[in-house]
């Protein structure tokens, strides 16, 4: 039995969160009723004979991760009797790809146990799937044929695999099923391992995330070649460094896939490897030729993002590495050969500010180089940005501390030495008090690490023995995390209280989709003179670049340019959820920023996402924040912990 699209989404939600979650919450996230959720769970549990795939209890539902994960891996291939619309469409596409003479609508309807009208409706969905691929359907009576080049057909196979594979994982069995590949699963791991080792030996940095995507295309190529569908022979000779990659692919394909690929296929796969999975090291073996125009475009985009968001990314080495990436990106764009990034979802939810900077860079690059970039490609740019920002993030993460340890021989020196050695990356000791009765009120550091009981302990204080144990250093680390979060959220609370107003609080938010929600939340800000309709339009344009649904429950739409008259937020809470891109959200915060408050952008943006990524906090605010005053009270309570 195949999983429906809603069941697929339910499985993903349960596997991503190991906490209990109610049927009502799951229903809101899926856009269905709690009764439907319960029926989906009953169906899932009915298929796991030995133990339930989903556990139930007073607090709701929770995944039995091993069972549910196995069910997802083995349960995605339907039988003809129970195939859903998406399954039937994908089955039709695979048959069209394999049948040189096309498929017969009458026979297909009989085999799938559906009416001919249903098959006709599925063919209409196939045509939608073919948009932009260079492929088309031609029909003569009951027979339908897929028309287009072999390369375009392979891209369609890849598209099917990407649609069916779960984001964030590389499941070999699911890949083989979704792409219709017959290759032995045992061949994939050694092929990938030796391909990576061979490319490193040839002088490349290997992007393991994209290498999985390249492996998919190698497997598709091998399968098509084995069925007599090789690519046309290329008339262009490869350069020496390209020929080395071709020889490696040829050898591994023979050894592990049992297929001898022709020149056309090897040339195509070499292009995929060199534009997706590797970056050349600066060496005589792999000379790097960087297009000056691309470097200039990237440099301008980085400078604009650095100024707009006040981030430390304007460095020559960063611009060069990103330019090499964009140069490969341009080559992929010409062939519409986009690279999948399994970390896209986690990057957006965990590092929203980094992703926002990447969106800005991607937007400028897209406009200047006339190409459109999706979330997966933006995520790769975000990984470059995050790597560059990690250095400054580490510096900002260090908290100051005062040690209070009454002097007796060198006890305070030993204590300081142990703290520096164990926690030096996160704590900087800036003062040591050796008096028995220190002036506690004068200590202003982020933390107070003391061997004597303070008169009034607070959240900064960690009481320690004079000789630290490993358990003590763990307690200090926990205090560092709590204090860091407290400082961040204190800034957020101050900002939110300043920028929120009762007029810009909408509950219930009633909207069919993200565009209607953005327009609805823009109305009170336009009425207050904070923004104009042009800002609303630019927020919609930003949304089309990449969804601003940064968590399962929260979207933070905004314009790329900070042109509001003053900074303000318009909050909308749906009774249920609102369709947003490919998912659904329950809370929408339309943010309007002014030039003067650009420093507040990072605080509000990242910390708002952090607060609303915590399931319990969201549910508390949804339950109790029924009006503006209640919302502020609950938000403050959540922030204050």
From TrEMBL:
Keywords: Repeat. InterPro entries: BglG_antiterminators, HTH_11, PRD, PRD_sf, PTrfase/Anion_transptr, PTS_EIIA_type-2_dom, WH-like_DNA-bd_sf, WH_DNA-bd_sf. Residues 498-638 form the PTS EIIA type-2 domain. Transmembrane segments: none annotated. Residues 289-395 form the PRD domain. It comes from the Bacteria. The keyword Repeat applies. This is BglG family transcription antiterminator.
